[in-house]
Amino acid sequence: MTKIKVCGITTLEQMQQLDVDYAGMIFYEGSKRFVGDRLKKQKSEISKLAIKKVGVFVNADYETIVKAIEDYGLAAVQLHGDETDEFCLELMDKVKVIKVFRISDEQNIDELVNPFQNVCHYFLFDRDTKAYGGSGKQFNWNMLKNARINKPFFLSGGIGLEDIDKLKTFQHPYLYAVDVNSRFEIEPGVKDMMKVQQFVNKLNHE
Fold first, then answer.
1. What is the extent of the structural domain holding 73?
2. How far is CA 193 from CA 146, 151, 196, in A?
3. What's the CATH code of the domain at 191?
4. Each residue of 8-39: pLDDT tens digit?
5. 3-state DSSP call for residue 35?
6. Taking the complete model, does pTM exceed 0.90, yes or no?
7. Among the four residues 84, 115, 144, 193, which has the most C-beta atoms within 10 Å?
8. What is the DSSP track for 143-161?
């Protein structure tokens, strides 16, 4: 069974309803799905939830990330910016680290990932856009088959219900999880939970 992460969650209610492996909360102010003050009063309740919570950060400082880990009980941090390998390594002792790589059509994936092979727990591959994720656009997944990837990775970028068959036929020994976001929204930060459940059922149970 493929693990599933739903990113861009902004309410406790929706986090409680999720029947997936990971729930992503975005701590980047430039995002339309920035949690901001929306979840501050419910930190203790969120931290106690069994679902693994992932905090998404873009070039945040170490102290900000560590505080979020403690406040929300984060199981992992997803580093979406230009964080260095040293920065990732420093966080590995505190939490699972997911390093994001933004992929363009001409990208040399080996060159991108090489400095981070030993300083994170997971890779995440997303489409390269001006925004840091949540674009609803895909990259060519076949590029991953030719790359020397030897670490579990999350597949992200514009994945929707219409991609179920494509996901089922995409074979890669290190594919760990599928990351969905904008294609399952009623509005930024608010998911269509029926659509999410439909995706879970179709991907893993049909």
1. 3-205
2. 35, 31, 5
3. 3.20.20.70
4. 999 999 999 999 999 999 999 999 999 988 99
5. coil
6. yes
7. 144
8. HHHTS---S-EEE-SS--G
